Amino acid sequence: MDRTEVGWLVAAVVVVAVVTAVLAVRMLLKLVRARRVLKETGMPLSTKAMFWGSIIYLVCPVDLLPDPIYLDDVGVLMLALRSVHAAAARARRGREV
């Protein structure tokens, strides 16, 4: 490999790391905004634990995949966000009845 190929490889890795970091931060912001839902509705303890567990997993230095690859972090945040919104929808339906 010559220097040009190495340069392109490094640039590609940096771009992938930046994109996944941006996705992880966006998901974290959405999850923190969803925290209001946890306070307003009677969420089950498992949903609250998943919310806080995903936040802890994001900042924890021990990951399933090395830190330049944020796919595991994004996946955990997406799962927690989905669970919070599903619990909120169930709570809203319960209040409407």
Automatic annotation (TrEMBL):
Predominant subcellular localization, coarse grouping: membrane
Cellular location(s): Endomembrane system
Top-rank taxon: Bacteria
Ranges that cross the membrane:
6-29
The family database entries (InterPro entries) matched by this protein are listed as:
DUF1232
> Can you give the residue ranges of the DUF1232 domain?
47-79
Q: How does it sit in the membrane?
A: Multi-pass membrane protein
Q: What is this protein called?
A: DUF1232 domain-containing protein
Write down the species. Answer: Actinacidiphila yanglinensis
